[in-house]
Amino acid sequence: MVTIRLSRAGTNKKPFYRVVVADHRFPRDGRFIEQVGTYDPKKSAHGINLKIGRVEQWVAKGARPSDTVRDILAIAKSAAPKADG
Q1: d(CA 9, CA 68)
Q2: pLDDT tens digits, residue range 18-33?
């Protein structure tokens, strides 16, 4: 099963996460299929940078986002500028 989850990077006491698409059998910080964004929880203005289109394509293909990624995606979608039309 393919999942969309966080992969930890950064240093001690300064976490930084990559949002990755990976097989659920791969280690948390190990091999992944594609990096679709980043998340910095220490930034005050939601340090979220996602390729929302790519995430939606992976979900359409059957990838399951983790609970945390689902919450981050909801925040990113609400903060994204909406096209008029």
Answers
A1: 16
A2: 999 999 998 888 889 9
Rounded CA separation 40/10 (Å): 10
Looking at residue 5, the DSSP 8-state letter turns out to be E
Backbone angles phi, psi at 54, to 5 degrees: -65, -40
Q: Six-digit token pair at 85?
A: 């039309």
Domains in the chain, start-ordered, CATH in brackets? 2-79 (3.30.1320.10)
Closest CA to 16 of 42, 55, 44: 42
- The whole-chain average pLDDT of the chain stands at 88
Question: 3-state class of 48 per DSSP?
Answer: strand
- Cα separation, 10 vs 16, in Å, equals 5
**Predicted local confidence at residue 85, as pLDDT:** 47
